[in-house]
Amino acid sequence: MLSETINRYPSASAITELLKPITWFPPMWAFACGVVASGVNPLEHGLIVLLGIVLAGPLVCATSQAVNDWFDREVDAINEPQRPIPSGRMPGRWGLAVAIGWTVLSLAVAVTLGTWGFLAAALGLALAWAYSAPPIRLKQNGWWGNAACGLCYEGLAWITGAAVMAGGAMPDERSIVLALLYSLGAHGIMTLNDFKSIAGDQQMNVRSLPVQLGPRNAALVACWVMALPQVVVIGLLGIWLPGWHPFAIGILLTGQFALMAWFVRRPVERALYYSGFGVPLFVAGMMVAAFALRALHASV
């Protein structure tokens, strides 16, 4: 099933596929939200912002993908045998070597972003390993695993962006609150990814929410978990800065409700489509919330 040949090297395309560039957007977007929410002009810190974006996506997120593929190679052999490791295009223990190398490189870059930036990145990397690697392997239970992913992909990336703009100091408390709320909402987004792998998860005793609750109940939980934090965000912004920002997030949430009603009727078949059309509305609301904090800083 898995090649143990040590005399072969993976191709550049296999390494790129292992690191999954398509997954880098969410943490890069969340980092940008943190930058915007800080109220500081990013053009004044262009190099640091660039390093932070690279850290959030091509480094920390890519590390999490490599770690996950290495420790999921048996499951992927069932669900997605075309992936680099089970297909043999990433031979021997190269998958593990890439995961370790990217971890070290990520920490080296994170050092340049100050204390809070480094700590956020280090925690994100620790969660990435804890999510996939035994003995912790948080992904064995969808409640814990999705929480770790949501915090890593959204909250910590947002906090890192805000911390970088604060010169490596602790970000504004309101920014941290919004980051954590959107991390909670991202728990539901992570559940969407589990519908495609129900068969393999059942065979390998991975207790994703669709496996634990059944597809329809898992879809309902995912929708509520995505929606409720956004309702709280709307309420908080209405208190902090009444105006168009909470109204705009409400419009985006209304669009999600319509798509959610369609999704829960056939969740296994429609999870991918909801990810493509509903999740962009969620992340657009994140940026609106970030601009609300930026406007709040400007009004002080």
Please state the overall shape, judged from the principal axes of the Cα atoms.
globular
Helix run count: 15
| Rounded average pLDDT | 91
Structural class, judged by helices and strands?
Answer: mainly alpha
Radius of gyration: 19 Å
Task: List key phrases describing it.
0% strand; disordered N terminus; 300 residues; mainly alpha
Secondary-structure blueprint:
Elements: H1 12-19, H2 25-37, H3 46-71, H4 73-79, H5 84-87, H6 94-110, H7 114-132, H8 142-165, H9 173-192, H10 198-203, H11 209-213, H12 215-240, H13 244-263, H14 267-277, H15 279-299
Helix pairs in contact: 2-3, 2-8, 2-15, 3-6, 3-7, 3-8, 6-7, 7-8, 8-9, 9-12, 9-15, 12-13, 12-15, 13-14, 13-15
Structure, explained:
The protein has 15 helices and no strands. The chain is an all-alpha fold and 300 residues long. The chain has one domain (12-299). Helix 3 (46-71) packs antiparallel against helix 8 (142-165). The longest helix has 26 residues, at 46-71.
Summed up:
By secondary structure, this protein is mostly helical.
